[in-house]
Amino acid sequence: MGFSTSGATAIILIGALIAAGIAYPVFHTAQEERRTAIQDRDDRTLSMRNTAIAIDSWSYNESGNENFSMSITNTGSTTLSVAETDLLVDGVYQPEGTYETNVEGSAERDLWQPGETLNVTTNRTTELNRVKLVTEYGIAETVTEIGA
Hints:
The chain crosses the membrane at residues 6-27. This protein is an alpha+beta fold. It has one helix at residues 3-49, and strands spanning 53-60, 67-74, 80-81, 86-89, 92-94, 100-103, 111-112, 117-123, 130-134, 140-144. The termini are far apart. 13% of the residues are buried.
């Protein structure tokens, strides 16, 4: 065994150590990111399981004003964001500002606590068939056969 064999073995060993030194931080960071993503997913799943809403009442075109109003109670244990709660009318997303919301009579509130009621009012010039309210966690309630 000459110097060339020992030198080649040393070079290969040094190369393996350098590669391991570079790869370890990458694998460690990837594992941390994976762990964080799993924790975030579990948190979202728990919030989704603890979210529930129920439509208390709705009315359409009372006294000829062509308004649709509904009252929805947060029956779950999760606090919901009014700004992240979406309204769909006949399957069409309604951008914020095209309808009015208030929580327990206050239009300034953005948080919808458990046990509180959210009131939604929208003015429609066309006949409605279906209105859906969707929370930030994807929990939804639908009113159908409105114009019938």
